[in-house]
Amino acid sequence: MKVQSAMFYFPEEVIEHIFSFLTHHPDRNTVSTVCKAWYKIERLSRREVFVGNCYAIRPDRAAARFPGLRSLTLKGKPHFADFDLVPPDWGGLAGPWIEAMARSCPNLEELRMKRMVVSDESLELLVHAFPNFKALVLVSCEGFSTDGLAAVARSCKSLRELDLQENEIEDRGPRWLNSFPDMCTSLVSLNFACLKGEVNLKSLERLVCRSPNLKCLRLNRAVPVETLAKIMNQCPNLEDLGTGSLLADQFSEAYVSLISALQKCKKLRCLSGFWDASPLCLLAVYPICANLTGLNLSYAPTVQGQDFINLIQHCVKLLRLWVLDSVGDKGLAVVASACKELQELRVFPSDLFAAGPATVTEEGLVAISTGCPKLNSLLYFCHSMTNSALITVSKNCPNFTRFRLCILEPRKPDPATNEPLDEGFGAVVKTCKNLRRFSISGLLTDQVFYYIGKYAKALEMLSIAFAGDTDQGMTYVLNGCKNLRKLEIRDCPFGDGALLADVTKYETMRSLWMSSCDISLRGCKALATKMPSLNVEIINEWEAEMEENLNNGVAEVISNNNNKHINNGNDERKVEKLYVYRTVGGPRTDAPDFVWTL
Amino acid sequence: MEMELELGLGLPCSTTEAVDLKLGDAKRSKKRRFEEAFEEQTTLPLFDDGSDGEVADSCNDNCKQVFYRPRTKELVGWPPVKCSWTKGGSDTDEGSYVKVTMEGVVIGRKVDLSLHHSYEDLFNTLDRMFPYKQPDGSISSASSSNHHHHMVTYEDEDGDWMLIGDLPWEVFVKSVKRIKIVGLSKQEETARNY
């Protein structure tokens, strides 16, 4: 076409300028495939790269391709690693990536990693290799200690953001906060809520004092109310606050100070923390509730009953709410009447070992859907759910993009009718045309998968547990969900037939996880043979031969060296955990011995 | 109470072995899970944390019954929450959890005593965790102090096994290390009910 040929006569700088308007990663990936010239222009001008699976490409290759890289986002372990389904030492090492970037991408400013293993040495390398380094965001990572944080604090000349979310960090003492140099005044965002140990409170206060740009500050539980009050007096411009421990005496100076400090923070929009929150301290928060858009009470089992109701009824502008199920259906009803703008709700189980004083059921969810029609994102743990409730919810809220429902008891049917929940979840996919993420639970047959395959055309991520009857269930999903990127399945009766039903499908997806299903080694080998562009990995922690002595209850485990077993003949053995993903990086070179690449 | 777990053989402390015991049958059944667990003896219900060695403990503690060890004793990774949620992110909370075992029950449980305020609260929870099937098939509480078939004992900080209920609640909470529900022999039953 004429327009297209005219593009060849544009100078590179002009094309590059045009590309700068493309911020969406898939778009940039697409333009790079048009021709060699565009590939070259695109790669040299690329500033941000998102790698959804760190094993999909070799770090060297990614780093060499994008020398101008400023921001890298990496994801490592599969999602089910959050629930202990992936053994420790599985992989997801950040080291090779940081080393590769250090060699090829000197302008790196931001690194965001999720479910990766990062060592203190890697953190040292990070801050020394990149003179402009500004932002480190670690989510659900592990492998480092507060010494690593000290290295980051010490060496970053203009650190803007240090955001640690739900990481496992080895506590080697509180001195890391002292490591921020006196001339470091650039902090905009600091989140150390997941640190379990003590922090040096004086250092914290001094740091905050010299950070005029601080907008987001999330403290850990070790920070008392006294310090919180002092800090807040220093940062009236704070927009996002995670409190420390909120225990205080009524007439204490700390409490009085807190009240006045909070009232000065006119820009505060997001609150979290609330550890050990006493009803008294909650009172201090009421004056700012009316402006809150985000509230996270999921670490505050003490905020329930009337305390919760008193708090939430003021939060009329709330967009995002995370709570524990101890607020009960009653609490959710108040949310429904007060928070008309609500878009995202997460209700976490508060006590997994015995039903607490209050939990949530389908009633709470129906109330929310009736009162909050703008709801588009849901994570809901409950003890029971009915089809009619789900149908009502989807009618009330057709805008769901993320819908995750976890009924705590696996395979629980609709208690009103004793039927499976196929129709209820089916209603969600039929009504919510923009559904991108879906997690289902309760008693479910192949029928629910028929609905998902037929209606969930926008679906990108699906999580299934204890559901389905036959291979047909999984096949419906593979055949029908055109935009599926991640499929994770546990404890479902899907076998080799389902696995091999549409092998080319997996090339269009990021990954497939199957654990405790009905697949065999033979099926997995067949998949690996047919699809060389995929890594087909089996996780078998032990092939144990058990010797059981019934009379005295003694059992012995003989754990065999797994590598010898992969080809020793019995391909009918069931595969415990399978992880399949597309890659251009070939088989992993860092796989531990319990991960077999077929 | 007998728990006949018709399960495969295997070591209990694996955290990653498949829960594929009788799931084949359980999957096709549309019965409610709790009933399944206690009638057909497939897997016990969830709500179990990573309490390693529970089975070993109950096997070694005076259990004279012969029973199969299950291949797994718990549902790993269910419900799907990151483990930091359950403990509230603090080490101090761990002190308030005590292990609870019941004679004849392979899988132990854990109770957070800080969420209970009285013996009655605790018994209610124990009832929920260990519903007891009477010979006539009805389900009743195994743990309430006036029940005829079981008594609730606990190990205190000195390592002695005591009968629950004698101390004031607050004192009990501080000294209890673990709890065990034991069946009464016929003699003890008679003596108690006399």
TrEMBL record, chain A:
It is found in: Nucleus. This is Auxin signaling f-box 2-like protein. GO terms for cellular component: nucleus; SCF ubiquitin ligase complex. Residues 67-113 form the Transport inhibitor response domain. The keyword Disulfide bond does not apply. Its main location: nucleus. GO terms for biological process: auxin-activated signaling pathway; pollen maturation; SCF-dependent proteasomal ubiquitin-dependent protein catabolic process. It comes from the Eukaryota. InterPro entries: COI1_F-box (IPR041567), Leu-rich_rpt (IPR001611), Leu-rich_rpt_Cys-con_subtyp (IPR006553), LRR_dom_sf (IPR032675), Transp_inhibit (IPR041101). The lineage of its organism: Eukaryota, Viridiplantae, Streptophyta, Embryophyta, Tracheophyta. Part of a SCF (SKP1-cullin-F-box) protein ligase complex. May interact with auxin and auxin-responsive proteins. Residues 10-47 form the COI1 F-box domain.
TrEMBL record, chain B:
It holds the Pfam family AUX_IAA. It comes from Rhynchospora pubera. Residues 95-189 form the PB1 domain. Belongs to the Aux/IAA family. It is found in: Nucleus. GO terms for cellular component: nucleus. This is Auxin-responsive protein. Aux/IAA proteins are short-lived transcriptional factors that function as repressors of early auxin response genes at low auxin concentrations. Its main location: nucleus. GO terms for biological process: auxin-activated signaling pathway; regulation of DNA-templated transcription. The keyword Repressor applies. Keywords: Auxin signaling pathway, Nucleus, Repressor, Transcription, Transcription regulation. PANTHER family: AUXIN-RESPONSIVE PROTEIN IAA17 (PTHR31734), AUXIN-RESPONSIVE PROTEIN IAA29 (PTHR31734:SF38). Homodimers and heterodimers. InterPro entries: AUX/IAA_dom, AUX_IAA, PB1-like.
